[in-house]
Design a protein that fits this description.
- The chain is an alpha/beta fold and about 400 residues long.
- It contains 12 helices and 12 strands.
- The chain has helices at about 10-20, 30-40, 90-100, 120-130, 145-150, 205-215, 220, 235-250, 260-265, 330-335, 350-360, 360-404, and strands at about 1-5, 25-30, 45-50, 65-70, 105-110, 165-170, 180-190, 205, 255, 295, 315-320, 325.
- The strands form 3 sheets. Strands 3-2-1-4-5-7-6 form a 7-stranded mixed beta sheet, with helices on both faces. Strands 10-11-12 form a 3-stranded mixed beta sheet, with no helix packed on it. Strands 8-9 form a two-stranded parallel ribbon.
- The longest helix has about 40 residues, at about 360-404.
C-alpha cells in the first residue's frame, strides 16, 4: 500500500510506516537539512523540498495513507500558543491533502499541548474538518463559523467524503521506546471501509521496570551492575514498590518493562574512545544545574527535543549514577528515538539533534503502522470480495430470470 508523507521531518514516522509495509510515494518537507536526511535514507527523487502550499497533490494517485506531523509550535507548551492564529499552523493543508486524495486512512502526530483547554475548540474543529474534509465554509467565514456549521452535520446522513476519526495521547515508552514521550496521535479511516480503529495495546510498563529493579533485581543482574552503582530505593519509590507487591503478590506484572537508556545503549562504546562510528562523537562542556539535570541512565529518557527555546530540562544529556552528565551523541539520540543504526541524520550536532528531537519514534510509527496496515488491508480485501460476490449473485439471478 502506498503512503504520502507530509511534514516529513527527518523521517521517523516514514521509516516506521515503511517497516510496517507501506511504500512511500512522496515526501513533502520544508526544512533543507531534514530534506537532506530524507534523501540519504529514502528515494531522493520522491522528496519535495519546499512549502506544502506549492505541492500539487493532484499529481499523485491511489494513495492509501497520508501521514505526517504538522508543525507543533502553535500548540507546544514551550511555544507561543498561537494555535490557529499562528501562521505555522499547517493543519488546513493536511486536511486539503485528505480532501484531494481521499486516502483510505491518515495518521497525524502532534504535541501534548494540542489538548490544552485553551485550544479545545480549535482542536475539535480540526477533528471535524478531518471527519468531513470536503465540507467547505463560505469564502469569508471564520473558523468559528465553519466550526458551528460542521457541528450541525449528521454523520450518517452526510454523503460527502467522511472519516471515522479517533485520537489518543500515547506515551512512546508504553510501546518499547526508551523515552517518555507523550504525543497526540490522530487516526482516521474512510467510512466506506467499515473498519473500526483501536490504538495498539500497550506492550511495556513502568510497573514491570520497577519490579525488575526493586523486587527481583533482574534488571541490574542482566546488565551486570554492581550493587554499589544501583539506583537506591528512596521513600516514595519504596512505597510504590510495596504497593506493587501488594497488587501482584507472587505474580509479576504481565507487560514488558519500560526500556531505559542503559537498555538502548547496550553495546555502544564510550564516545571518548576510538570506535569508528561516524556520528558517535563526544561533545564536551555538558553541565547540570537545577531544572537542567539530564535523563537518568537507568530510566527511559526524558522527551528528546531541541528547538528555539532550547532544552530546559537537559533532555539532550545523560545523567549517570555518580551524578556526572554528558551530551547524547547523534548516534545515541537515534537509539533513543529507535532509528536504525545505519539511518543517516545530516548536519552538525545541534541541527541533527533538532531533527531527532522533532521526529516520531520509529518504533511507535511502526506499531501504529502495523495495526493500520492490517485494518485497511483486511477491509479492502473484504470489500473486493463483496464486489465479486455481488457480481456473481447478479449473474446468477439473471440466469434464473432467463430460464423463466
Amino acid at each position: 500500500m502506498k503512503s504520502l508523507e507530509i511534514f516529513s521531518g527527518a523521517g521517523g514516522l516514514a521509516k516506521g510506516l515503511e517497516l510496517a509495509g507501506f511504500e512511500h510515494s512522496a515526501f513533502v518537507e520544508f526544512n533543507e537539512d531534514a530534506c537532506a536526511s530524507l534523501r540519504r535514507n529514502f528515494d531522493p527523487e520522491k522528496v519535495f523540498e519546499g512549502n506544502i502550499k506549492n505541492f500539487d497533490f493532484h499529481q499523485l494517485s491511489e494513495i492509501d495513507v497520508v501521514a505526517g506531523g504538522p508543525p507543533c509550535q502553535p500548540f507546544s507548551l514551550g511555544g507561543k500558543h498561537g494555535a490557529n492564529a499562528d501562521n505555522r499552523d499547517m493543519f488546513p493543508y493536511a486536511i486539503n491533502a485528505i480532501e484531494i486524495l481521499s486516502p483510505k486512512a491518515f495518521v497525524f502526530e502532534n504535541v501534548k499541548g494540542l489538548l490544552r483547554e485553551t485550544f479545545s475548540d480549535y482542536f475539535r474543529y480540526i477533528l471535524l474538518r478531518l471527519t468531513f474534509p470536503d465540507a467547505h465554509s463560505g469564502l469569508k467565514a471564520t473558523w468559528q463559523e465553519h466550526f458551528k456549521s460542521l457541528k450541525n452535520i449528521e454523520y450518517d446522513r452526510y454523503d460527502g467524503i467522511k472519516y471515522k476519526v479517533k485520537h489518543a495521547l500515547v506515551n512512546a515508552a508504553d510501546y518499547g521506546v526508551p523515552q517518555c514521550r507523550e504525543r497526540v496521535v490522530i487516526v482516521g479511516i474512510r467510512s466506506d471501509l467499515n473498519a473500526t480503529w483501536e490504538f495498539p495495546a500497550q506492550t511495556h510498563s513502568e510497573e514491570k521496570l520497577l519490579w525488575d529493579k526493586f523486587v527481583t533485581g533482574s534488571y541490574w543482574e542482566g546488565h551486570k551492575v554492581p550493587k554499589a552503582q544501583r539506583e537506591p530505593s528512596h521513600n516514595g519509590l519504596s512505597t510504590r514498590v510495596r504497593s506493587l507487591q501488594d497488587t501482584f503478590g507472587f505474580f509479576e506484572p504481565e507487560l514488558k518493562p519500560w526500556r531505559t537508556i542503559r537498555d538502548a545503549l547496550k553495546g555502544v562504546p564510550d564516545p571518548r574512545i576510538k570506535h569508528g562510528i561516524t556520528d558517535h562523537i563526544f561533545r564536551d562542556l555538558a553541565r547540570a544545574y537545577p531544572g537542567h539535570t539530564g535523563s537518568g541512565y537507568d530510566l527511559p529518557a526524558k522527551t528528546v527535543k531541541a528547538g528555539g527555546h532550547g532544552v530546559p530540562g537537559g533532555e539532550n544529556m545523560i545523567r549517570f549514577h555518580d551524578g556526572s552528565v554528558r551530551y547524547f551523541t547523534v548516534f545515541e539520540g537515534k537509539r533513543i528515538q529507535t532509528f536504525p543504526d545505519d539511518y543517516r541524520i545530516t548536519g552538525a550536532w545541534t541541527e541533527a539533534m533538532r531533527q531527532i528531537g522533532n521526529a516520531v519514534p520509529v518504533l511507535l510509527g511502526q506499531r501504529i503502522g502495523e495495526t493500520l496496515f492490517q485494518k485497511i488491508s483486511v477491509q479492502g480485501r473484504l470489500k473486493k470480495g463483496m464486489r465479486v460476490r455481488d457480481k456473481e449473485s447478479l449473474e446468477s439471478r439473471a440466469e434464473v430470470c432467463a430460464k423463466a
